[in-house]
Amino acid sequence: MKFLEKLTSKKGQVSMEIGILVAAAVAVAAIAAYFYAQNVKSAGDRTQGVANDTIDSMNVSGTYNISKL
């Protein structure tokens, strides 16, 4: 219970330390969210490009095979 006594102390130092830790955690979470959003956006663009390439390959292959009939 000594830990709880420190949290409620009148000095304010522990409160400030906890505040700094919370602020650092929020900053890290914001940076991680930014990089996650950037990764999701670029993954969508790459997926669209791969899908279009696959469709084009199937079109060429299908046209070639139909012309052989």
Keywords:
69 residues, mainly alpha, 2 helices
Describe the protein in words.
The protein is mainly α. Helix content is 90%, strand content 0%. It has helices spanning 2-7, 13-68.
Compose a concise summary of this entry:
With 69 residues, this protein is mainly α. The chain has helices at 2-7, 13-68.
What topology does this entry show?
Elements: H1 2-7, H2 13-68
InterPro entries: Class3_signal_pept_motif
Subcellular location: Cell surface; Fimbrium; Secreted
Protein name: Class III signal peptide
Quickly count the helices: 2
Q: What series of H and E elements makes up the topology?
A: HH
Radius of gyration: 28 Å
Tally of DSSP β-strands: 0
Strand composition percent: under 5%
Instruction: Please state the average pLDDT score.
Output: 83
Pairing-aware structural class of the strands and helices? mainly alpha
How would a textbook summarize the main sheet?
none
Looking at the structure, what is the overall shape? rod-shaped
How far from one another are the termini? 85 Å
Low-pLDDT stretches are none
Overall helicity: over 70%
